[in-house]
Fold this sequence. Notes:
The structure is a homotetramer.
Chain A: E1 53-54, H1 64-70, H2 81-93, E2 103-107, H3 111-122, E3 128-133, H4 136-147, E4 151-156, H5 165-174, E5 180-186, E6 188-189, E7 194-195, H6 198-207, E8 213-217, E9 236-240, E10 252-256, H7 258-264, H8 276-285, H9 295-311, H10 313-333, E11 337-338, E12 350-354, H11 361-371, E13 374-375, E14 387-391, H12 398-414, H13 423-435
Parallel strand pairs in A: 1-13, 3-4, 3-5, 5-8, 8-9
Antiparallel strand pairs in A: 2-10, 6-7, 9-10, 11-12, 12-14
Helix pairs in contact in A: 1-9, 2-9, 5-6, 9-10, 10-13, 12-13
Amino acid sequence: MNTLHVSSIVLTFSAPTSPEIISTTPFHFSLKLKTDRILRRKMDYVYAPGKNHLFVPGPVNIPEPVLRAMNRNNEDYRSPAIPALTKTLLEDVKKIFKSTTGTPFMIPTTGTGAWESALTNTLSPGDRIVSFLIGQFSLLWIDQQQRLNFNVDVVESEWGQGANLDVLESKLAEDGGHTIKAICIVHNETATGVTNDLSKVRFLLDKYKHPALLLVDGVSSICALDFRMDEWGVDVALTGSQKALSLPTGIGIICASPKALEASKTSTSVKVFFDWKDYLKFYKLGTYWPYTPSIQLLYGLRAALDLLFEEGIDNVIARHSRLGKATRLAVEAWGLKNCTQKEEWYSDTVTAVLVPSYIDSSEIVRRAWKRYNLSLGLGLNKVAGKVFRIGHLGNLNELQLLGCLAGVEMILKDVGYPIKLGSGVAAASAYLQNNIPLIPSRI
Amino acid sequence: MNTLHVSSIVLTFSAPTSPEIISTTPFHFSLKLKTDRILRRKMDYVYAPGKNHLFVPGPVNIPEPVLRAMNRNNEDYRSPAIPALTKTLLEDVKKIFKSTTGTPFMIPTTGTGAWESALTNTLSPGDRIVSFLIGQFSLLWIDQQQRLNFNVDVVESEWGQGANLDVLESKLAEDGGHTIKAICIVHNETATGVTNDLSKVRFLLDKYKHPALLLVDGVSSICALDFRMDEWGVDVALTGSQKALSLPTGIGIICASPKALEASKTSTSVKVFFDWKDYLKFYKLGTYWPYTPSIQLLYGLRAALDLLFEEGIDNVIARHSRLGKATRLAVEAWGLKNCTQKEEWYSDTVTAVLVPSYIDSSEIVRRAWKRYNLSLGLGLNKVAGKVFRIGHLGNLNELQLLGCLAGVEMILKDVGYPIKLGSGVAAASAYLQNNIPLIPSRI
Amino acid sequence: MNTLHVSSIVLTFSAPTSPEIISTTPFHFSLKLKTDRILRRKMDYVYAPGKNHLFVPGPVNIPEPVLRAMNRNNEDYRSPAIPALTKTLLEDVKKIFKSTTGTPFMIPTTGTGAWESALTNTLSPGDRIVSFLIGQFSLLWIDQQQRLNFNVDVVESEWGQGANLDVLESKLAEDGGHTIKAICIVHNETATGVTNDLSKVRFLLDKYKHPALLLVDGVSSICALDFRMDEWGVDVALTGSQKALSLPTGIGIICASPKALEASKTSTSVKVFFDWKDYLKFYKLGTYWPYTPSIQLLYGLRAALDLLFEEGIDNVIARHSRLGKATRLAVEAWGLKNCTQKEEWYSDTVTAVLVPSYIDSSEIVRRAWKRYNLSLGLGLNKVAGKVFRIGHLGNLNELQLLGCLAGVEMILKDVGYPIKLGSGVAAASAYLQNNIPLIPSRI
Amino acid sequence: MNTLHVSSIVLTFSAPTSPEIISTTPFHFSLKLKTDRILRRKMDYVYAPGKNHLFVPGPVNIPEPVLRAMNRNNEDYRSPAIPALTKTLLEDVKKIFKSTTGTPFMIPTTGTGAWESALTNTLSPGDRIVSFLIGQFSLLWIDQQQRLNFNVDVVESEWGQGANLDVLESKLAEDGGHTIKAICIVHNETATGVTNDLSKVRFLLDKYKHPALLLVDGVSSICALDFRMDEWGVDVALTGSQKALSLPTGIGIICASPKALEASKTSTSVKVFFDWKDYLKFYKLGTYWPYTPSIQLLYGLRAALDLLFEEGIDNVIARHSRLGKATRLAVEAWGLKNCTQKEEWYSDTVTAVLVPSYIDSSEIVRRAWKRYNLSLGLGLNKVAGKVFRIGHLGNLNELQLLGCLAGVEMILKDVGYPIKLGSGVAAASAYLQNNIPLIPSRI
């Protein structure tokens, strides 16, 4: 029917429940509608004028050329067009991993599925792996590893610290028998804004001539942070389309080293959907797809890669470095602490900001959305209520970030923090004004 | 750089290799480019004037309102908007299954992943299941069942026939000990255009008071053929977004009966990404998503459901019935045989047409694409070269179908079949002219 | 508020009022809503499943790549980007006129505005012009010429006939004093499907060494019919973006010969918005726009031209020739008459079909829309109720046309015409099957 | 061919030529490409990462829901759907003028065409009108008035000042014979950021019981500034779709009072395309369109009005007031002068900022675009090189503005102005933090 009666809408924000460390539950902030029927017709019922300022660390802003590329009808994926397109994607997607020897897989799934694909193709149930718990996403990955029946040595750090590589070194040193089959590490922990040093992991593996596979979650790093798959000897690296690639969610992108491919031949983990073998078979046939891909995401990925290559991957990384540095300078100017405890772990894709104990950080996130059309990241699990997060990854420029920072300043004032308005923007822009390059296409 | 040198493009069509019955490989028709670099910039390099006539049985045509709904930037999926939207989707998506008691899951995956989710959540390794091999897609599902370590009784029929329910009856009759844990059946075999009678399966299970779960692949049936989850006692039903829902690929939609949910509590199959428990936990929290969904597909699904409900699910089914009947009348008028051997199995979503032995059906598909901008379905595996398929599902109307049928007539003439041009169109339109209803919104 | 009460919707179709020959009113078919408020939220309230089959002679189907190109935010039109884009458009748009010496103007207006621009820039009030009345659109142009205070010799033909060039010859022969300042002629009269022979007009002007300007309405011809501005000595030619260019309405595209430009220097007609001088001034400055253009249409035009050039203008013309011929063969097979009285005038962009006197052609158009989601052209003015029109121009292919023809057959049966279903499709496809070329990008 | 050789691209920015007061030429900043051919394929050749920050005073940012509404194929505008849609638009568009008695016209043209329509429908050649020259756009309108053969009393003010209403009063006082037929006034002069007091004009007309028509250019005011057509006795008001309505360019929207309609009956100005009579005839017929409208813009306008009404016109005006005030506070904090000389004329849609004489304001605009992906408005004509303009109208929110202001600060530093970074943002956000309301849909 075309009759919609809506007498009123009530939004209530649930207070964050006190989280348990063992919880694997990410948090949301929710609303209740007296009647949900209104939504059936009204696509944008939380409309606010102007752009939504999207500063969660994923999904991120999609550039207009990518939206355009995806604005299309379905196609027969068995026609010659899609394999030809796929071929270029497989060749080019390796560049975001800085790999020439790897084999990529573009699986219709999310980061969680990409994790599962990485693990189940290279390892067998009961295999011993070393995994670092440093925040919510490493926690969730470890939870998956355990549920997939691997034997996980969890190396825990305080949230805000990086992976404890001293413990890794001890374990490697003690493991003359090579019982450790894989090291699993999140390159950039999205919950705390901590970037781990992968080259050091490789150094340790080499130092002890340890053959363990190196499996890396690059979900919030690849295409944004310096990532060198071949140079660092990463065996499986993975990311998701909705992160720095700036696409919608829907492709889990994995790159496997020759050693990982070799390992996949003997892995006894049960899998079908995530099985690389099916992909490899279709790669050989030149048809590429064991099941139906999203036509729209393939064209979108083509456009996304074209934009990244036009900008230059290293320039993309430099841009993220500017955005990260500028954000940290603002946080410092505000007199707030970065959740990340040491400079060596600072993340250029997300900054988790600690708030004073008298402020509930979730209130900052709610207020950002309710008053400023600004989307910030919640503190998750152990740091819920204690940090809010500014995601600064993907298709984003400096003026967008400064608008966000100006917004955060007003929100901090809203919630009673004694901020000097403009202080963070001043600090950030002092740095940026010295460092932003001219736009090459416009010089 | 902006320099593209392309000296020439050569497309070659690989002849279909003679397929083995045991092969689980769907076929494509492929092309080779002397250089693929051209594709990097040229999104539509196989451009042809006018609309592409998309008559493969999926992915299917996306209606304009759905394309519009998906033409949007990413959003924070943890804000109140997405859970509120998701809530309406979960309520409404049950209607396409005709279920009030089921629990739906909208998993970011394809039909293959939905299959895996259905199996691994309800069954345990070694469980005995009965599964019907009647075509390429039931073959692929059986292959998955075996690789997931279930103990499969494969009940094979000749391709073109429906599931052999006599064999099922025998097995049920003999299974007083209830060793059979599940019956797995494809409602509509997309490779041969065969629709199985699910009510009869239920009848047999009831007759023998057999507690086996009934797991149904409704990928090319749900939203197009009459499907009654609750009435037929289906325990798990599943479809994919790119089929009759007329969306892009990317959501595997599953509906689980209370009995299936109960079974999931004791299933010991290893899974994480596909684990319903994670969804159920987040359903309780009211945040719905254990990992990042595609914002675009959620809004697209909302629009797709709205269109289906506006038309009326039963009217949608009636429309598919008209399209199917009209297609079969055309095939008959052409003097060709339907691959489906009996009327009781005729599919209203796809028609597989047998060609005379002196014609290679793949040539028909190639020619359709190369000359008429028409996408038809290849014959797969056992029937490769022997049938071509006309998909008539999803957002499609009668004049679109008649354009396709007129195209098929010309192609048949192209390949040397002695067709009377116009004959199929005449037969189809004689039927349609008597049966097309007025468009309700325009009366 | 979000409350929409809609108790019911009633659509009524008004019978076409009997039209007067002198009327300059195009006709529509209309509907009444008990309440219009429903429309405020419901964008697609006359939704019907599947594609709308758009066979009016404009606006026509927009190709997907053009829709994509236009799917974009506004931009500053004073930045370097828009002039650079405009420069390529001005160069390339001349090719659709087959002119190298002409000067193009892309005015933010419709065809009616383009008419006005052509007249007011080259002529002065009181100037004598010869103009041919052969249908509704030439009638409307003549009406405009008279209201703009030109002294019009109206040369009328029966509707269904072409311009009477014998009368033109007499007038030229008698006009030794060159009082005739311009010949105004519609290349293709959209109301009756009549194409005039422009080369003959040029021949006559040359024969009598007459300096009159030749002003041509190419609205439904340019980019679809053979049009040779330079060769035929056309002084002003014009079209609209929503016709064979297959864009939305919004750009009136004009090309002026050097002689027309020269004439514009002395024209005393009052105009500002349509004044070419403003454009010429900005062309010199290299900024091109005297007022704000539509950013979206500029990018859309770029994409539309790219597609036309990729296909090849001559191939585009050949495609329209096929579509026109096929349509006429169908009409003949149905036993109906073409409104166009002689073969020499047959139009390849629109066919006006005469119906028997016992049928109201408007009922055919209504029924097409109400039952088949098919949009046909009404008979206008003198031929209202007597003809319906099939537009076959723009981004359209053969199978689309055959779907339309199959639809027309069913409608003819609906309204009581004794048609043999399939007969028109058979005739059309017999021709097409012999003449459709392979798609070059897919060979 | 698919071969593009581009050896290099050189962009050069032309220095602004010293403008003459009498010039009616708006300025652009231009670039030259060694070869333009690159543009033929590359739609976004001046790509820069992240959003373009569009702060010219038109065309402005289009909201996503409007882009979605316009993302559609053409339709038959003679079907019942388009008149029904048009009817709602004509009713609703009056609300943006705050008129219940006016008659709206939505003409496929730009603001320049809307000007012409206002003048030629209500006045006759030779008619005396009073017109105020206060900046580039009033200059251009006066130029048009003169070229259309009206007898214009030009009342000039220094650029930066409002209309000199004292002179108007004198003229009205002296005009007992009512030789003045119309007062033409720009509500908001976009070149200088000056808003005129229309209520005072009405007061003077009433005081002297003068029957002159009041014609108002509301191009950069309507939908953004307080505008009261009926209350202020405005006879013709007009705007363009690409301004505060936040659509693409393409509709000139005019509202005519009953008195203006009456005047149109006797106007002898020559016009056809812009003639209101044609519209009025089709309004009566219920078909609304004398020539083809843009289907996309009609649906876009529907969506744009829906968004404006959802926000509430008065809330929209309040939002612009906030944006204007915040911008002026920033300018003040920077130690720069507003081009607008008195507070009573401050514009809430555009701020023209005077730069010190040692800075060329065009360099600020160039730098904004080349380094920060920020589009600012140039100084035009008399103020070229002396001011740059920040447009703050249309679908825009506070954080977007703050990002722009932060960008302007960096640019000012770039060009050698001794700015304290953060100072303007601090001043603006201090005000905004006190005044931004919660977003109603999210409370």
